[in-house]
């Protein structure tokens, strides 16, 4: 293994926001939050706190010089509470003090007076009260209402998935450093530097060019820092602005777990209709999304839920409706898969129920309805290739699915207190931001006079390995060794107007921008080489392995010499390039378009064992065939598949966010919130990458891999579900995730 930053990480030398040496005189901030889930804010009593040692400022919404607003899609989220509080943990005031300990002590001494109002925590209850973040949306195709009559089997039910805590290793944080002339530099642990820049400029009431946001790397984001890094950066900026001193604000783990949003819990009603052969004719689903207190990214997440309501299947008649319900919880937010996993879970539940009704294996129904090349998604886009069906066939044969089933059946015959189950999970995930505007990126490439190269893009490295991929792209474009290329930090002053590193688009969009910038420099260098080597046609010149080639033959002229010659001729060795994903479009009014550059897909076979007495489950093996196209970095991609998969297994089987009656998070530590560790990981994880077949893909023929593998984890739920049914034939388990030991025991003890 050769991780691009292994040496830095292993030695603890890789710097995160909290590790950056701060300037002398840096102050520390602590946040005062609402003690109540819902109420009128009557007053903030800071008298006692102000007199504590080291306290420099106690700031409220009245101290915000610009707009007290951090909401990006819908402006419904104040930086600091004004007249009302909407969730327990909502920022109400900011204490700035000489030390972290002094700031936190003073924050505890600030008294927030709230007149409580009745809170609502459940999405369906909020819906019943008309508490919607925005009007509900429907995606439809065909004629569902008349399709039911033609179905041989129609089943209906309810499916629920829970919240998921991101557990990025680095908690939220920022350092704000005031500069001369009313400028501000921010180090922020964000996936979205431009969003932080825009919001901070708004909060301070200054033009964006006065705010620079820099990100070296994140200790994980997983979507949790796509929008929700912004308020903490905004608070640090406010503290710095009001005191004129650098201010650092880094959340502790427990604060982070209490105050920040999670994956949206969904509660959904489904109805599915099939013909006698198991072909799905009609599917209707209503998603209740628990948005929490503000919009945050909920509108975009809800939209992706609708796009992925039919996942990897062709269904002629579909109606999917989704409502974003306002509750008094911290606003839920992006999490790997972005509403897609919630949608896919419901359809798998519907298929499992239909299979039970028809006496079929769920995999039979899955296989018969898999999207084939040329078939249409409900939103009008066509499946561009046979990659998905090839993944299915490859998984079935390579891993010998019939033999896996046989082994499980034999095991079940031989064991009474342990039962095994097998599930297959196909995934088809659209690659691009569903909001077309966001599908643009920039890159700035400098070739230095010694031949070394710096690349800046909008991409944020958060462990997903996009930096080493961009390095490969730059090196391949210029024809030099990757060792010569360094990926710089992400800075709004070097590359502006960037989209968040999200939607799995980091390598594609920033890679294409890097390629374009590299090609612009290369074109100039070819002209220089043509002059030096007296070659008439610059197009015959190429660079390979750091050597200039003419018509494919080495010309005895090295990269470094060429760069030196270009400098001597006063030819620019730098370029900025912009990339906009071509062709994509989506008409929100008709619900039709081509919203994605392509789809990433794959199939997982999951095996699980259930302990019938204890209700414990083990995910024994997961065998995946995944389409990563022409992978730029197969090791990184394998890591993404394995990591995403385990995160999905955790969401489905063990991670559970529980709340106190007050609305506070009960599972606010890593001892009460259980994430999968090595022991919970399957003993066997096999990942095979599909042989590329020339279908549409991203940069250098590779396909995005960041999010899709998480959804293989859904197969864990249904493998356990199958094991429960093996223990208690006829049991109709509730489709409620996570499938904890308690829920498994409850299912096993239900009368069949
Ligand atoms: N992998 C690691 N190690 N850490 C992360 O934070 N985030 C995931 C995925 N893989 C993440 C990760 C999410 S939610 C996304 S959208 C993509 O990486 C983002 O990176 P990319 O678009 O550059 O692939
Ligand atoms: N963010 C976003 C995303 O704003 N739009 C998207 O479509 C998306 N998809 C996945 C993850 N983040
Ligand atoms: Mo990922 S949820 O797009 O940050």
Structure keywords:
single chain, 752 residues, alpha+beta, 8-stranded mixed beta sheet, 6-stranded mixed beta sheet, 19 helices, 30 strands, 29% helix, 25% strand, globular, binds ligand MTE, binds pteridine-2,4(1H,3H)-dione, binds dioxothiomolybdenum(VI) ion
Largest sheet: 8 strands, mixed
User: How helical, in percent, are the residues?
Assistant: 25-40%
Shape: globular
Classify the beta-strand content into a percent band.
Answer: 25-35%
Ligand inventory: ligand MTE, pteridine-2,4(1H,3H)-dione, dioxothiomolybdenum(VI) ion
Topology:
Elements: H1 6-10, E1 27-33, E2 39-45, H2 47-50, E3 55-59, E4 84-85, E5 91-97, H3 100-109, E6 111-116, H4 123-128, E7 137-141, H5 144-147, E8 153-161, E9 173-178, E10 184-188, H6 193-204, E11 211-215, H7 230-243, E12 247-250, H8 253-259, E13 266-274, E14 280-292, H9 298-307, E15 317-326, H10 340-358, H11 362-369, H12 387-398, H13 401-414, E16 418-431, E17 440-447, E18 453-457, H14 466-478, E19 485-487, E20 490-491, H15 506-532, E21 541-544, E22 547-550, E23 553-558, H16 559-568, E24 574-580, E25 585-587, E26 592-594, E27 598-611, E28 617-626, H17 634-653, E29 684-689, H18 714-727, E30 735-736, H19 741-748
Parallel strand pairs: 1-12, 8-30, 10-11, 14-15, 18-19, 28-29
Antiparallel strand pairs: 1-5, 2-4, 2-6, 3-5, 7-15, 8-13, 9-10, 9-12, 11-20, 13-14, 16-27, 17-18, 17-24, 21-22, 22-23, 25-26, 27-28
Helix pairs in contact: 6-7, 9-10, 10-11, 14-15, 15-16, 17-18
Dioxothiomolybdenum(VI) ion binds next to loops.
